[in-house]
Structures are given as C-alpha cells and as structure tokens.
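Rotation project, supervised by the postdoc (A.L.). Task for the rotation student: set up a whole-complex structure prediction and record inputs and outputs verbatim in this book. Inputs entered:
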Amino acid sequence: MLFLRNPTKIITRAARLRQHRLTTALVEGKRNYGQAMFPGARAAPFVNQLKLTMPQDYAPIPIYRVLNREGEIADPTQDPRLGQEVVEKMFRDMVLLNTMDKILYESQRQGRISFYMTNFGEEASHIGSAAALELRDIIYGQYREAGVLVWRGFKIDQFIDQCYGNDEDVGRGKQMPVHYGSKELNFVTISSPLTTQMPQAVGTAYALKCRPKNDACVVCYFGEGAASEGDAHAAFNFASTLDCPVILFCRNNGFAISTPSHEQYNGDGIAARGPAYGIATIRCDGTDVFAVYNAMKVAREFVLRENKPIVLEAMAYRVGHHSTSDDSTAYRPADEIEVWNSVEHPISKLKRYMVHKGWFNEAKENEYVKDVRKQVLKQIAVSEKKLKPNWREMFEGVYAEMPTHLQDQMNELEQHVEAHKDNYPLKNFKH
Amino acid sequence: MFAWGVNCRNIRQHNMKVSVNLARGLFNALKTAPPALARSHFTYYPTTATSDKGDLQKMNMFQAINQAMDIALDEDPSALLFGEDVGFGGVFRCSMNLRDKYGKQRVFNTPLCEQGIAGFAIGVANAGATAIAEIQFADYIFPAFDQIVNEAAKYRYRSGGMYDCGSLTIRAPCGAVGHGALYHSQSPEAYFAHTPGLKVVIPRGPIKAKGLLLACIKDPNPCIVFEPKTLYRAAVEQVPTGVYTSELGKADILREGNDVTLIGWGTQVHVLLEVADLAKKELNVDCEVIDLVSILPWDRDTVCNSASKTGRVVVAHEAPYTQGFGSELAAYIQEKCFLRLEAPVKRVTGWDTPFPHVFEPFYLPDKHRCLAAVKDIVNY
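Outputs recorded:
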C-alpha cells in the first residue's frame, strides 16, 4: 500500500513480477534474506522497528476536476474538446432529468404515483459517464442513475409508464417506480436490494471478456452507502482476482438516507479501497460533467485494453431528499443544501461554461424547459389513464414456463375474482 | 468460514502438488474414518439404467457429476465452472481434470466468498453464458441467500422478461455424512422451496445426479442441485456415458406397493427402500417408495396418486421437522386426498435442533424410526 502516497503510480505488474522471481527462488531453494517470501503478501521488506501503519500516513486521493465553479477549464490540456452539439445534448439531458424529477416528485406528493426518487445534484455523473460509453456497454445501476437512461434514449413516456406500472411498462408493472430497465439500451433492470448488482456486473464483465473480440465493458453504479454491503467487497475482490473489464462507479453523495458518510466509513472514501484490492482507481468531481466524462473515457479504454477493473469515485452531494418517503431537513441544514443547489450544482456549472463559449441561449433554454414540462405533464395525464396489464400477468415470468401449480393458482384466482368482481379494481386492468 | 478444504487454501498455485496431496489426505480421512464414525445409516440401492443412452460404465456419484460437467463444458463453449477450490478438482473431486481440459479461463477458483460466487454467477448467466457455480457445502450457501432469493429467483419476473439468469446452476453438497456436525451436514432445501422462481433438485445416486445436473444446466431457470455428499463415493452404479437428462419436477416411483406410501429424497430414499424391505418381511406391509427428486416445483400428481391409492403416507427427510419440506407435502396431501386418507400423514425427520456431532445416530430419521412410523400408521 506504500504506493498510495502517489496515487497515480500503479505498480501491480512490477510487483507481481518481483513476487514471481521470489517464489521461483523459493522453489529452487535459493536464499534471499532481505525480503520476505511469504506467499500471502507482495515482496514486502522486513523491518526491525515496529511501526503502526496509520490511515493518515496516506494522503487523500485527489479529486480530478476540469471545470471550476465558474465553469472555466483550469487546465486546457484537460479540455475534452466536445463539440457544441454534444455539450448541448449533455446540458439538455441534465435539464430534462431535472425537470422530470421535479414534476414526478410533486406528482408523488399529490398521491398520483406511489413512490419516487430524484437525481438532484448528481445529473453530471450520470450524463458525463454515459456520454463516454458505447451503447453496447452494459449498465448495472442502483436506482439513482436515470440520467444514464436519458442519455441512451429512454423516452419520457417510458419513464412515466414505468412509474405508473401500466400496460406500456416494459417491466409489466411488477416493480416499484424508478426501477427502470431496458434491454435495447443495455440497462439491466434495477432492483431494490442494495449492492446485489455489483458482483453480478463483475460476472457479466467476465462473460464478455470470454467472448472472442470483445469490445464491450460493464459499468456498475452504486452509492457510497451501498459500498458498505458485503457484496461490494465481493465485487471488488472478484473483479480484481478474475481480471474483469468492469468500471465500478461509486456515486459518493455524502448521504445514505440520513446516514452521513462519516458514519458510513472512516477511510478515505471508496476510492482508497481500490488499491487495497489491487484495482486502478480514479476520484473525480461528480458535479463536473467534463471531469466525469474524461475519467470515464480513460476508465473505459483501460478496462478494455487491460481486461482489468477500475474503481471510479464521483464526489457529489445529494441535493434532494433520499426519496419521497424522506424529509432530509430532519438530519441536515437547509442552507448546506442550498450551496450545492446553486454554486456547486452540476447544471449551473455547465451553464456557466456554455455562457463563456457563447453557446447558451437563455430564451432557447427557457423554451426547452417549458417544452419538457409540457411533455412530462401531458405524459402523466396519459400514463395514469392507461390500463394496468392483465392481472393474470402476475403469474407470468416467475419461470420461463408456467408450472402446473402456478396455473392452478391462476385458475383459482380467476374463479374467485369472477365470483367477487365488485371487490377488485378490474376496470383499471386490461382484460 | 471453516470447511475441510480450507487448510490448503493459503498455499499458492506453485505449491499445487502439496495442496492436492493435502486435500486428498483430508478427504481420504473421511473415507477411512475410524469404525465408530464409519457406521453408515443406510444401504445403497443402485438404480438400473434402462434407457439407451450410450455405453454403461461403473461410476460413483462424483464421477457421474464430473462427466455431466465435462459434457456441459464440451457442448457449450460459453459454459463456465467456478467456485472455491474447483480448479484443482474440488474438495470432493467433482471437477477433476476439467481445468486441464478446458483451460483456467473456463474452470477456475474464486475468492472465498459465497455471496460473490452467487452474484458473479448471476451476472455470467445474465450475459447469456452458462454458469455452473459450486458452493463448497450447502451449509455455506446462506451468505448467498440474498443473491439467490432476492436476485436469481426474481430476475425474470421483475424485469418483465427482459433479463433473466436462467442459464445459472448452483451445485452444493448437502446432507449427513456421519460426522459432519453442524456445518457439514445440513439439508437446507426447505429454505429455498419457499422461493418462487427457483428450481431445486436432489439426486439419489450417480445416474440421477448426471441427468439432473445436465437438465438443470439446460433449463432456462436458475436451478440448485443439492448433492448428498455421503453418496459421492458410496453410491456406485452402471451409468450411461452418453448425454441424457432427467426430467425436472418429476418424482420417481422406485417400488410399487398398495399399503403405505413412503416419500423421501437424496440419501433418505435408500433408507426408505430398506424400510420397505423390512416392512414386507416383518409386517407383511406393502410399501410404495417415491423419490421426490424435485423439491421445487414438486410432482404433485405422482404423490397424490400414490397417497390416494395407499391411503397412508410417511414422509421422511434429514432436515428438521418444523417447516421442513415434509410439512408442505403433508399439508398438500391432506388437502387434496382428505377422503382417501386412512391415517394422518406421518413425518419422520431430523429433530428441531442443530445437526449434532456425536449424537448423529440419534438425530437421523433412520430405518428404525421410519419402520416404527410405518407400524404406527398401519395400526392407526
């Protein structure tokens, strides 16, 4: 772990070579008194003084950033030089996500949908990372990554139909709102149990690696709270030992519901765990869309070139409440939220950049926001009127085929519903 | 986590020879345990292969499983085989020689982490490749419970059929072995039987183990195969060397009879076959013996037909009584065959205690307890 003092230096290969020479020497009966030859550690030297290795011996992993608060690029060599069209898509996708979030949050408040989770403050880490990927790359998410879907082309009606669980929902109304998925956009369906997707993403990456001429990687998003689960440990370690082309993308937004990150872990965030597992690591400013983009671009090239994983930690702040079932002012001051909602907000930063570039047109953007608002509101009206799927679909998809015991249970319910029609909301469901 | 194979885990690959020998030593110790421990609670009743599925070859159960995995890896270039210590052949020798034959990219060790193995396997399957994952002992499947129950079982359902992990098979050695105590003896099938979306099977010997494993690997649903570890070496049969599958969800009637239906699975089937012999000899009672084979979904027709015919049912399993899978069978039989039953369904099972070490002979639902149950139920 000595190399952590210089986080840009990754010396796993050299160390492995040294280890190999040592073990060869061991097997051949040669003696090397200077260095340890235990199989369980790299070629570490012996020392004769006892010293505790303290966490503060290691400098924190720095946060890579391209845009400053004013929306200026500090180091021109780091300018991703994205054309106006791409930057405008980035901005508009962030705005679309933000606008849709505001309205769907409100519609949950009005009891029109059962549940919602916003993405406020994390738009840049979604859009920046998605923009650096190819559509064939497979995404595993947690639940706060709707921006990745926006970038990939998931439509407003698809988001809202899922939240309503109506007959147009590709998930067939089986999961809670915001548990999106799309086969054609290579976005694996979200599930509620935290972190379970991480070792799965690693397995998928391994399977991709085994394909001849593989040119796709896997990206797995997770929050810093989820990183405390055992599955995160499993994923880090499997990805490393089994050499999997996977980007483990941590959205560190400072909170897991009410739990601040200092109650979540005591180390240097999630990034510092990467080197401990033998994984190359990047930490970047998750409110800076260009920093995330550059980091992701490098990460993607690295994992595909080396068939090895990368840990990428994007630092941000969860501006919104955890979910519609949470009031976050119960555990954090409103003025703290306000800072992150204005000067440090990813959309504001990109807007300032666009203003410098002369690419920002106030009137055009206002028009765009108005248009998105209109689309979302219209879609809510449409989606809530659509019938839910036939209730018999409740029994479908448990297995690839329907076993006889499920057929029997479906028939049983059929007869019951027929006899007690008035007690069930049949009119809301397809027949 | 402590398992018999753990001792050799720290030894690196260059010391493989040492680790193989060490593991062999440990597991030969199992085979050649002192007489007191070697006392087996069952007599093996081999199955005769009837169908024409290639030449017959004498094999024990680990060899039949090895052959099934060999066929799966050979037939399907996407198939991967992994788990703790599978690389050198597995602590029960089930994956012997497969790494040499198919390469270490396809047959490999994972870190020692069951939730990781299950999650990784789901991811492999979700990419469309075939995953054959091993959990070293069924007793250690619980760290993977979340991945199996919340994830694998629900993958297809929750995504509206967009994603699935149907090409996933998990193998885990289960059941009593004479001296396995709490954590090398468990039969956890009932925990998984409560999980829609999974298929759970338990073979009674080599022919069935090979057929079920191949069926599970091909089945488009996530499957768990619990392999009674005491049968790995003890069960020897003439096994067809060709490719064949055993139907999932189908019970086998191993012996026909008219007086009492005996239902079991895994090793317990052999106990019940002996009980049927004893009942005939000592009580002149004609027992029908059913190997349930599939725990989920289970074969309701075969069970109910037999229960309706005999009117008396004994269900026996090694797992504890309360909420064991016998409860499901008993409840279903009384609901569907109520008017045909001559006596309450009797369950002979392990006790509601952890699986003990030195008390194993008193814990198991052995032939004496099962025969006593038959006597009770015919005298009811």
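Student's summary: Chain A has 13 helices and seven strands.
Supervisor addendum: Confidence is low (pLDDT under 50) at residues 1-11 of chain A.
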